[in-house]
Write a structure and sequence with these properties.
Layout: E1 5-10, H1 16-29, E2 34-38, H2 56-72, E3 77-82, H3 90-96, E4 102-108, H4 111-121, H5 126-146, E5 151-154, H6 160-171
Parallel strand pairs: 1-3, 1-4, 2-3, 4-5
Length: 173
């Protein structure tokens, strides 16, 4: 089975966006029309509604519209970078990407590497560093328990290109 969509799932600092970029580059080089959607980017709105602190509902509505536009433009493969914390939400993501064939690739990474990445990413913003470091630990536990993933890929000692190649091979892309 060829999957039309891959959802790169993982805690903050796991390498989702970087791996999505590398995967898109590899897929593009093979001549396959694809689109990347960073789910963080399509849910940024303030203030978030009460009861939905991460704007999940907005994310899903925006995702459906973006995917429809990308499909109309010819995208054969959709690459998502984000977080799915609850298994029951997978059906809603599949509906939004217009495909039952969505592969969820969990990216994991050593906690010390996450810390180094987050310290670099949020240098000069101690509040953001503290929040992201706390969220990384919390989210890793949530994702472990959720069991949303089809396969796990360790990004600790591998380049984004290497991880992307492994995912691409697994997907048959």
């Amino acid at each position: 089975m060829i999957f039309e969509c891959v959802f790169l799932n993982g805690t903050v600092g796991a390498g989702k966006t970087t791996t999505a970029d590398a995967l898109s580059k590899q897929v593009s080089q093979s001549g396959v029309h694809n689109a990347i959607i960073d789910l963080d980017d399509i849910r940024r709105s303030w203030p978030a509604p009460a009861g939905d602190p991460f704007n999940h509902e907005l994310e899903l509505r925006n995702l459906a519209v973006l995917v429809a536009n990308y499909r109309e433009a010819g995208a054969e493969r959709i690459i998502l970078a984000g977080v799915v914390e609850v298994r029951s939400e997978l059906a809603r993501y599949r509906a939004a990407v217009q495909s039952e064939r969505m592969f969820v690739a969990r990216l994991v990474v050593d906690p010390d590497v996450v810390k180094a990445r987050l310290l670099q990413r949020h240098a000069g913003d101690p509040e953001a560093i503290d929040w992201h470091l706390d969220r990384a630990v919390q989210l890793e536990h949530i994702l472990d328990e959720a069991e949303c993933d089809d396969e796990v890929f360790d990004t600790t000692n591998r380049s984004a290109a290497e991880v992307a190649a492994s995912i691409r091979a697994r997907l048959g892309w």
